[in-house]
Structure formats: structure tokens, C-alpha cells
Amino acid sequence: MANKLLMTPGPTMVPERVLKAMARQPIHHRTRDFGEIFNSMNVKLQEIFGTKNYVLTFPASGTGGMEAAVANLFRPSDKVLAVSIGVFGDRFAQIAKRFGVDVDMLSYEWGRSASPEDVVARLKERKYKGILITHNETSTGVINDIKSICKSIREVDSDILIVVDAVSSAGGVPVDVDANDIDVMITASQKALMTPPGLAFISVSERAWKSIETDPVSYYWDFNAAKKGLQKSIPDTPYTPAISLIVAQNEALSMIMEEGLENVFLRHQKIAAATQAALNSLGFELFADKSDSSPLITAVKAPDGFDVSRFLSLVDRQGVVLTGGQQHLKGKIFRIGHMGYINKEFLLRAFEAIEMAMVEMGFNIEKGISLKTIDETLV
Length: 379
Ligand SMILES: *Cc1c(COP(=O)(O)O)cnc(C)c1O
Description:
Elements: E1 5-6, H1 16-22, H2 32-49, E2 54-59, H3 62-73, E3 79-84, H4 87-98, E4 102-107, H5 116-125, E5 130-134, E6 136-137, E7 142-143, H6 146-156, E8 161-165, E9 184-188, E10 199-204, H7 206-211, H8 223-231, H9 243-259, H10 261-281, E11 285-286, E12 297-301, H11 308-317, E13 320-321, E14 323-324, E15 333-337, H12 344-360, H13 369-377
Parallel strand pairs: 1-13, 3-4, 3-5, 5-8, 8-9
Antiparallel strand pairs: 2-10, 6-7, 9-10, 11-12, 12-15, 14-15
Helix pairs in contact: 1-9, 2-9, 3-4, 5-6, 9-10, 10-13, 11-12, 12-13
Organism: Caldanaerobius fijiensis DSM 17918
Domain Aminotransferase class V: 6-327
Protein name: Aspartate aminotransferase
């Protein structure tokens, strides 16, 4: 079967160089060979996170990382404020509830971002041990202004634990964990980090370590055990790690560093702008406001009578995978992921498929208009 072009909210495309790095025998994890690769990956992750904190690695998708954070940080009946602007914000709250945490919600209509003023108002009403917040809400294509939100939080509460889901943002936009005083930030390998799914990465601040007990409820996800592994002269993990994925992730991070983080961020912005312009040229409207639309994924309103599932399957027939909306947005939007290993060539391929699908669906479009727009926007 031919490879398809994934322009989805994850998993995303993996560069050939990363695939090759993975295609070798496992390196034993209690050896210097592995320790060097693991250390090299960790140093680069710290750079991407913008932190001096330990970044812990677990074999999991992003949700596993979110659950690990909750299991280590909170106890039943701890009070937590969960800020939700979509599917992933809701998921974080549900995880905490499952652990018996006393969760209050600050929820927004899907398609909108969270406001720092609302967060502050809620923090003034009740004392919370932690706040859960999504950086980039992949379900709606909306990015929260995490810098302003963190700054506002710290103005009213200097010891609340700020826990950020940066699963779809880290590596594509700045996250600046230390500068924003974020206590725990979670990301995963399969979005902007250009690696297959299976690794979750979690940074933990000094403030957070103080509240992590020596015996968290979970054995496998014990942050202290993971930290001990990182403190060894030859770092390792408490249990057998996902060795091949770590080798791959290290390679992908090397590619990011070679390109330069600032250049990577700029590339994401330019690709997002070109995507939006191309969609507009075809007459589509974006789901999110321009001011908080995501540089990593674009959500598009389905015009009246537009059959999203037919559209997606026509696009898929051209070898391009896009996604629809989740929950009540099903049938109402479709989403184009443009994070990680993304470039002009991929974008052109995607829009070629989109145009073909539209023609097949009977839309009267000027053929090649979106490709021309991309060509003009991305120089
Ligand atoms: C993808 C994603 C997750 C985690 O999903 P997994 O499928 O478990 O990796 C969490 N939050 C956001 C914002 C995401 O985009």
C-alpha cells in the first residue's frame, strides 16, 4: 500500500531520516550506548520545552502523559480548575475526575480561546491546588495565549500548580516552560515532534516536585522513579523504555535543532498562513477567529450542504488524509493538520486533492486557484 500524506491532528508525517534511525536492532537500555542517546534526546527536549527542569519520558500517547501528571500531582478531593476550550480540555478534566480530584470547570464555546481575566476571576473565588489547561486545542484549531494566561495566574496565585497540555504545540510554537513558570507540561512524539506515536514527555518544576509524594498512586508512572533514572551518570529509565522510538525521537529532534527552533516556528506560521489563504481562495471560511487560530492545525467550516465524510473519503482516495470534527462538530468542520514534518510540497499535494474532491462534489471552483495562492504566499 502506498504511503498516504497525513495532514491530520496526529500522527503526522515522519521524515525518512527518522524512519531509518528506527530500523535497527534495539540498543540495550542499561548500556552507555543507550544512555548517550537518551541524554542527547533529553537535552534537546529541554531546549524545545524552554526549561532546565527534568523532562521525563514514558511509553504512552499524550493521554497517558496527562494521566501520569494527574496521578503524581493530585490526591482525591484536591481542588483543581480545568480550563476547557474543546475535546482535549474536557479530557484532562475527565482524567482528574476519574482519580477523585474535585474538578471545577471553566468551559468555553468550541472555537473560542480562554481569557486570562476569566481564569483570574475563578482563581479569586476559590483556592485551587492546580489548574489544567490546553495550549493548542487540536479539536477546534484554536490556540490559547498561554503566556498571558500563565502571567495572570501568577499575579493571583504564586503556588498553584500550572499543568499544561502542550501535546500538539511543543516543537511547533514556543512553549517557554520556565519563562511562563509552567509546573508540568506534557507533550508527545507524534505531533510536532515528527516521530511515530508512543512517547510522552513531561517536564516537572521544583514547585511540582515538592508536592509529588514518594509513593504516588501509580507504580509504573511514578515520577520519582523516572527522575532517579535521569540523575544517574549514565541515564536510563526505571523499566524497559520504548528504545526504538527514543532513537527515532532523538533523530527527529536533531533535525529540528539543525533547522533551528526559530526557523521551525516561522515555518509553521508561514504554512498556516498559506493554508488559510488557500482555503479562502476556494471560498471556505475558517472555524476559529484569525486572532487565536492555531499555527499547527486549521479547522474549516463545512459550507451548507457540504458532506464532510464524502469529502474526506474523496481526498483520501487521492492519498491525502484529513480529519473531520469531533463530537458536536462532526459534520460541521474538517481539519487540516500542518505540524511537524510539513512543507510547501506537502501542502500543495493536499490542496490538489482538496480541489479534485471539490470538483467531484460539483463545486464550481477555478482549478488550481489554491495551488497558485500557496505558491504566492509561500516564497
Ligand atoms: C493529540 C492530543 C492529545 C493526546 O492524544 P493521544 O491520542 O493520547 O496522543 C492531548 N491533547 C491534545 C491537545 C492533543 O492534540
